[in-house]
Model the fold of this input.
Amino acid sequence: MTTMRAKMRVSNVQKYGETMERLSFNAVAKDSGYPADGSDENNTYATYTPSAELHMTVNNPALAGKFAIGDTFYVDFTPAPK
Done:
């Protein structure tokens, strides 16, 4: 079974009413240099996924207001049954 984990940063939150939000994510990267030994986790993720974008609209009262610009999340891709 092939799986993949990406590390994504919230880049935008657009609110629609009380409970609906459009969330935008981009792959992590550092604004400044990485340690010479490559030990920064974001460096590892950026090496294997240098560019990624994800947009989703969520209409869930339990999640409204829970995502903030700059927050980071792991996104796991696991095959689903066909």
About this structure: The chain has one helix and four strands.
